[in-house]
DNA sequence: CCCCTTAATGAAAGTCGTTGTCATTTCCAT
DNA sequence: ATGGAAATGACAACGACTTTCATTAAGGGG
């Protein structure tokens, strides 16, 4: 999994991968670091930062910015382009797709002569679980 | 303009407002501070930060996050809800609207039981001017 | 297996945008 | 005018993230 990216298989990377594989919600590097510590696997915070950055570049993790600017990561099911509906309270996320919206974005950019266009789109709200827990 | 927001009319706020009124592109607090200094109006950096934050909360300035996380501000023509097509090089922006996309976002959120939903959407590219200047 | 090269780790220090502090200044309602 | 509250700004502090660099440990070649 990690060796196919030309990376060495270290126990730290294994620990991070195992964690993001079972945590479904978006989590920051610091939160992941804390979760690792809680389960006895002590991985340096620097290494967690480096690992999630590497995995994100490789497309293995999705990254989004929370409202406060902190980057949060998550292992997504689909490797295809998609966006997220994210819970502000717990980080729970639903992958969403909007082909029509994608085309609209392309269109708008082209109409104004912009090139090398990318877009960011995230939906934030409170998930049913957190709503119920009020 | 500023008094209608329950704020005192200081020369610093006047200077910042005059600046954002004539700069059409998205600019960071630090960039605005530098521009003020360049034109002889010396306003403290702290005050620039406070002023843009206040104006943004009041809806007088639009804020978006650049890819590096830095907040950039701009005076927009429309007070209505809209998004932006922004040049990565110079900050030039076009206001864009996508009513169909807005409805789609509402729909997706409702379908998944999420409440208090908001969304962020920005289009980034290279504007025609910067493309030409290559 | 055992080296040996080199990638990877991690503690500590540094970066940088942004915010808090607090003494001083300035606005403005009375 | 003048008193009191709001605003300013130099400076320190904050926090997420990165860099540094000495140390550790993969893992391929012998
Ligand atoms: Mn998209
Ligand atoms: Mn919208
Ligand atoms: Zn939730
Ligand atoms: Zn441009």
Instruction: Provide the helix percentage of chain A.
Output: 40-55%
Number of helices of chain A: 5
Multimerization state: homodimer
CATH homologous superfamily caption of the largest domain in chain A: Winged helix-like DNA-binding domain superfamily/Winged helix DNA-binding domain
Low-confidence residue ranges of chain A:
none
Class from helix and strand fractions of chain A: alpha+beta
Q: Strand portion of chain A, in percent?
A: 15-25%
Bound ligands: manganese (II) ion, zinc ion
The largest sheet of chain A is: 3 strands, antiparallel
CATH structural architecture of the largest domain in chain A: Orthogonal Bundle
The CATH C-level name of the largest domain in chain A is Mainly Alpha
Number of β-strand runs of chain A: 6
Number of domains of chain A: 2
Shape designation of chain A:
globular
N-C termini distance of chain A: 40 Å
Describe this structure in words.
The structure is a homodimer of 134-residue chains. By secondary structure, chain A is an alpha+beta fold. Chain A folds into 2 domains: 1-77, Orthogonal Bundle (Arc Repressor Mutant, subunit A); 80-134, Ferric-uptake regulator, C-terminal dimerisarion domain (Dna Ligase, domain 1), CATH 3.30.1490. In chain A, 40% of the residues lie in helices and 23% in strands. The longest helix of chain A has 13 residues, at 45-57. At the A-B interface, α4 and β6 of A face α4 and β6 of B. β6 (115-126) of chain A pairs antiparallel with β6 of chain B, so a sheet runs across the interface. The complex binds manganese (II) ion (MN) (2 copies) and zinc ion (2 copies). The site of one manganese (II) ion (MN) has 5 residues of chain A, from β6. Chain B binds a DNA duplex (30 and 30 nucleotides) through residues 7-13, 28-30, 43-47, 49-50, 68-71.
